[in-house]
Amino acid sequence: MWRFVAATTISWYGDWFTTVGVLVALYRLTGSPVAPTGYMMARVAPRAAGALWGGPLADRLPASRLVASCALLQSSLTASIVACNHAGVVWGIFAAVALSQALTGLATPAIRSIPPLIAGSHRLGTINALNSVAYGSAIFMAPALATPVVARFGPNPALLGDAATFLIAALLLMSLPRVGVRQPASSTADFGSHLAGLRTVGKDVVLRAVAALWFGGAFAATAASAVLVVAARQRFGGDTNVGLLYGAVGAGSLIGSVLVLRVQPTSVSRVILVAAGVAEVVALAGFTLANQLWQAYVPLAITGAAGVVYQAWSLTDMQRRVDGRILGRVSGVITVAGYAGMVAGALAAIIILPLSTWDRSIFVACCIAIFAIALGCLDRPLRRPRAPATPPLQVGSN
């Protein structure tokens, strides 16, 4: 268990080093706010494509070996970004980012399938909570550490650090033992179908709401991330302060992680998950009202805390209720929903930002996210089911 948590923690720290480094590198190479926005598209669109294949692969291949192989390839791709930045080849940076993020999407369903394989059902909440703590600390610490490094030495040291974290994570994952597939009491039919995960999510009201939450939250967060460096430059003291804004989200994520570590319900209702998801989006909209750097910390921290709560609890609920033979594909559906939200959010930022300001772009994105969450929480299906045929009337004889 601890090797798995360590691998994901190291990888997340490195990922945020690259996020800060690439955003600053592209902004300095091009001098245009559109380039960081384009980076967010190159970062998220390939993830959705990779996740489409990642779910079925996670049910057919050893999950830890699949994730480790992706990490090794990502290490070399991240190192190539350094060469492209040194040479000023912007398209090369975008190509390396796109390939690396496709591997991230491919590996994510497998990552979410590993906890039931290495721990019992009673420890799933602990593993997801520890991962949330690691993720929150990475958002909080890594940008804060990367900001002075990038400001003093440029983006390349941060990128090389990320390449090293991929190598370490791969070694830890390859050391995990191979175990069998967990099969809980609940069963799901049609295990061999590639669409089995989609059918399972569509029939379950909680999983359907979770997919909507992951889409809506990712939509708003990605749209905000795409313009965050612009916000830092225009209102919050300079482009390198984007790391401090990410750090505020990380601080909130850390607080939310402590909550989910201490509170581990055996089951969680859809109402609680939706309330946390809506709080994440509303707080992000409130960030647009801040005029000083310190004023931005509170809404961003609330955004981070609320996001961690519904993500950790929804993953634990999914891992407990879904049969292990189909868990990779169900996880793939939730993953694709989140990455599709990222793609749509990046597209929204690209379309809206040239026509408006960064704060209005974030506010519009949050409104769209709330609508998407509400749509996914509808209890009645959009298509009315066909009524069963009425049996013929039986007439008795006297």
Summary of the model, kept short:
The protein is mainly α and 398 residues long. Helix content is 78%, strand content 0%.
List keywords for this structure.
mainly alpha, Growth Hormone, Chain: A, 14 helices, 78% helix, globular
What does this protein look like?
The chain has about 400 residues and is mostly helical. The chain has one domain (about 1-175, about 195-375): MFS general substrate transporter like domains (Growth Hormone, Chain: A). About 80% of the residues lie in helices and about 0% in strands. The chain contains 14 helices and no strands. The protein has helices spanning about 1-30, 35-60, 65-85, 90-115, 115-120, 125-155, 155-175, 195-205, 205-235, 240-260, 270-285, 295-320, 325-350, 360-375. It is globular.
Please report the number of helical segments: 14
The computed structural class is mainly alpha
Q: What's the domain count? A: 1
Text of the CATH class: Mainly Alpha
Kindly state the number of beta strands: 0
| Rg on CA atoms, Å | 22 Å
Indicate the percent of residues in helices: over 70%
Write the layout of secondary structure elements.
Elements: H1 2-30, H2 34-60, H3 63-87, H4 90-113, H5 115-118, H6 124-153, H7 156-174, H8 196-203, H9 205-235, H10 242-262, H11 270-287, H12 293-321, H13 327-352, H14 358-376
Helix pairs in contact: 1-6, 1-7, 2-4, 2-9, 2-13, 3-4, 3-7, 4-13, 6-10, 6-12, 8-9, 8-13, 9-11, 9-12, 9-13, 9-14, 10-12, 11-12, 11-14, 13-14
